[in-house]
Amino acid sequence: MLYSSVIVAVSALAGFAAAQNSTVIACCEVPVNNVSEDLRQSWCDAQENTCVDLCGGQGDIASNGNTCDASTLEYTCKCSNGTTIAEDTMKTYQQTVPAQMCYFWYDACINATINPTTKEGNAAQQFQCTQARDAQCGNTTIDESSSGSSSASASASGSGSASRTSAASGTGAAATGSSTAAASAGAAVANFALGTPALAGGLLAIFGLAL
Q1: Can the peptide bond before residue 129 be classed as cis, meaning omega within 30 degrees of 0?
Q2: pLDDT, mean of residues 162-182
Q3: Are 155 and 142 in contact (CB under 8 A)?
Q4: Which superkingdom does the taxonomy of this entry point to (predicted)?
Q5: Apex CA 182: angle with CA 87 and CA 188, to 5°?
Q6: Which of 182, 178, 183, 184 is nearest to 38 (CA)?
Q7: Which of 84, 66, 83 is nearest to 75 (CA)?
């Protein structure tokens, strides 16, 4: 009876460790308060520029249809023809709030793989972070979606574009303005995830003595 309990306990821990390793922190957002106020504002500026381009120009925006609250990162994008740009569409573009948040998450995910003792990153976990980034973080530019459009270049040179310059390259530099709290939380998660196999081994030893 005790033996079967040991198997159940170890299996549960192994499953939990595997889940932790899928992505060290769940993709693809971090708490809004972990993003600096200045960075949130730059994201909103870029978001509003992108909305203008997606609708076809400033004159094609619905009344009060292009908003972004830097304190909450909630936004709207409605065109004068009645079209509302859905979030699923919006997040595929680099210069939007969801895309920039996703790249910010990526940096936090990479930080979370770093062992606070050795200061070394877990390569397997970092690979998972990168896979999630490539699959989930928007990388479409206005130029790509509407080639030749004069409004396309406006998005790339808009007031919020500086916040995405390095993120588009995938280097993880998009979180230059990330808070210390985000990095600390990531390190704590990484430490826990890296320590799980050792915990399972310790329980096996303890249960072995009991048997």
Answers
A1: no
A2: 36
A3: yes
A4: Eukaryota
A5: 125
A6: 178
A7: 66
Instruction: Determine contact, residues 27/105, Cβ cutoff 8 Å.
Output: yes
Q: Are 27 and 109 in contact (CB under 8 A)?
A: yes
Structure-derived torsion over alpha carbons of residues 69, 70, 71, 75, reported in degrees to the nearest 10: 30
| Whether 145 contacts 58, CB under 8 Å | no
Q: How far apart are CA 166 and CA 34, in angstroms?
A: 19
Tens-place pLDDT, residues 3-44: 444 333 333 333 333 334 467 889 999 999 999 999 999 999
Has residue 138 got a pLDDT over 70? yes
Q: Which pTM value belongs to this model?
A: 0.62
- The encoded tokens of residue 133 equal 């980034």
CA distance 97 to 103: 10
Question: Bigger pLDDT: 207 or 79?
Answer: 79
pLDDT of residue 174: 37
119-136 pLDDT per residue, tens: 999 999 999 999 999 999
What's the helix, strand, coil split of the chain in %, to 5? 60, 10, 30
